[in-house]
Amino acid sequence: MARVETRGVWLTTTDSKVFHSRQNIAEAMNFLAETGFNVVFPVVWNKGATMYPSQLMRQTFDIQINPQFVGRDPLAEVVTEARRVGLKVIPWFEYGFASSYNLNGGQLLAKKPEWAARDSEGNLLKKNGFEWLNALDPEVQSFMLNLILEVVKNYDVDGIQGDDRLPALPSEGGYDRGTVERYRQQFGENPSKNFKDGRWLQWRADILTEFLARLYQAVKAINSNLLISITPNIHDWAYKEYLQDSPTWLKRGLVDIIHPQIYRRDLFTYKGIIDRLVNEQFTATLSKLAPGILIKVGSYQISSEYLLQAIEYNRAYGISGEVFFFYEGLREENNALAKVLRKGPYVQVGAFPTLSDLNQGRVSK
């Protein structure tokens, strides 16, 4: 009998050639299916453009698709090739509410300057190189919701994925005139200049939670079997830094499957975070947890020992699955990590969990 577990991998446009041709996509899907994976998370939204021809983007920004892929539809190609080999497909909206990376807002804010997020000095909100759209603005939220629904309506996907930028906003933000006015109407005073003030943090986080609730309902109205997957940063750092209130999301049932980014380069730290998540945050929702594991970034490459021990540790806790960042890490050194997975933890066929599997609550060890 097949084991029920999430075996996923992110497909990126950065440091990867998977999307460069239909042939590359087909080859990657064959490889993943042969290795024992059962779900792919292809990027569909980054750098202010989509990985599919978008009517919404054409109408709003006059940019129909990432210029690199004009004349193609990489998302449609991924869906077709993944289906051919039995893989699930959950498109990943990588940039979320981020507008650009070190481009002063890029083409989105050049066209819609009123959509900019602002810090307490009134400057364009920037954190770790990313410039931000105002995720608290109803118009920006509607745009993001419609972008996601465009994918859900037009492609045969199994769900959609937000991440550490969806729903999210750096906690330094929220000082645009519209948001300040909304806060003042509710509390009779301006928000604190201390962007980590407790009430101000929670009030903004609640707006993002309500956005997720709207997104969840809208996607489920189209197809109740579609999964809402989120890969946030780790609580409660993510709450204080990016207004991501994942415990509330889980409590309210707004996430079907969640992949906290436990991107640590040593096993000891990884295990410590798993301990904390399982014992504090996922006491009643363990079946929804499939952590994100960093297998490659820049010159860093995970060792096969660390990878195997992390999976073993997950299973010992009753965590049935993980998602790897990112695909190219499996291909390094003549597919070394893929071979290790194929011979070890993925030797048995793994069935991707159904919605009822994910909603079981805490699975027994």
Give an overview of the whole structure:
The chain is an alpha/beta fold and 365 residues long. Helices cover 41% and strands 14% of the residues. It contains 13 helices and 17 strands. The protein has helices spanning 22-35, 55-61, 74-84, 106-111, 138-154, 177-187, 198-222, 237-242, 246-251, 267-281, 304-316, 328-343, 355-358; strands spanning 3-4, 6-11, 39-42, 45-46, 49-50, 88-89, 98-101, 126-127, 130-132, 159-162, 227-230, 257-258, 292-294, 296-297, 300-301, 321-325, 350-351. Helix 1 links the parallel strand 2 and strand 3 (39-42).
Strand order of the largest sheet: 6-3-2-16-13
Order of helices and strands: EEHEEEHHEEHEEHEHHEHHEHEEEHEHEH
The share of residues in helices is 40-55%
Distance between the termini: 18 Å
Tally of strands = 17
The CATH topology comes to TIM Barrel
Which percent range describes the beta-strand content? 5-15%
What's the main sheet like? 5 strands, parallel
- Helix count, DSSP H or I runs of 4 or more residues: 13
Can you tell me the number of structural domains?
1
Low-pLDDT stretches: none
Provide a short characterization of the protein structure.
The protein is built from 13 helices and 17 strands. It has 365 residues and is an alpha/beta fold. The chain has one domain (3-358): Alpha-Beta Barrel (TIM Barrel).
